[in-house]
Amino acid sequence: MSEDVLYQVAGGVGRLTINRPERRNAMSWSVVQELRQGVARAKDDPDVRVVVLSGAGDKAFCAGADLGGMAPEDDTGFLALHEGRGHLASLFQELWALGKPTIARVRGYALAGGFGLALACDLVVASEDAVFGSPEVDVGLWPYMITVPLTRSMPPKKALELMLTGRRVGAEEAERIGFVTKVVPPEELDAATDELAATLASKPPGVVRLGRDSFYQVWDQAAGPALAHLHALLTITTQTEDSREGIAAFADKRPPRWTGR
Hints:
Blueprint: E1 5-10, E2 13-18, H1 29-44, E3 50-55, E4 60-62, H2 78-96, E5 102-106, E6 109-111, H3 113-119, E7 123-127, E8 131-133, H4 147-151, H5 156-165, E9 168-170, H6 171-177, E10 182-184, H7 189-201, H8 205-217, H9 223-238, H10 241-252
Parallel strand pairs: 2-3, 3-5, 4-6, 5-7, 6-8, 7-10
Antiparallel strand pairs: 1-2, 8-9
């Protein structure tokens, strides 16, 4: 991976950082591709139990798309530009299919595609100076690519209001709307993110994978098919080693020893 996207693993936590602070961590085509590579790498790494996504510096998580760089450098034609934009949608889907919890650590601006990227994560920890918004309408565009993560993270009519008006939302309002998990002072952002990541990393990874996958699988299903799917998964989960270990540890009044099986 290049210096534009950093990948680190420690203590069960994989960290993906957009490292373009001079561009407010705007996403070029190559940045999106490297984020996708990082997600795939974390998915295949048994040492990674949680993924934290962040932006370098204190000005922005991600200020959206780098409009001059959203196509492969060797081909800037119309079709290449169209295909390049589609990689953001693929990144969203790959985050949902990761099988491991994801946390967006947000400091500063999370705008346009960066807003969608944050909300494609399972949980969002934001500093008090975080700012969210989809200002595309003000420059004659529409936030098509982020519609799904937005409408999955707040009441749909609230998402529509933000897309129609282009107005920006501070961290306190974002928490009240419901798409931010926790708001903390800027100096506490790293500690709060690390604490949440450590909590998630301490859970049984196999059960978390089954449960998290089921959450996304039944999201758009009708109640009947969703309940049938969940019913089957309950029986499957009870047959895992971690489920039996968890019940035994509870009975023995001792900490469980997870194996991921």
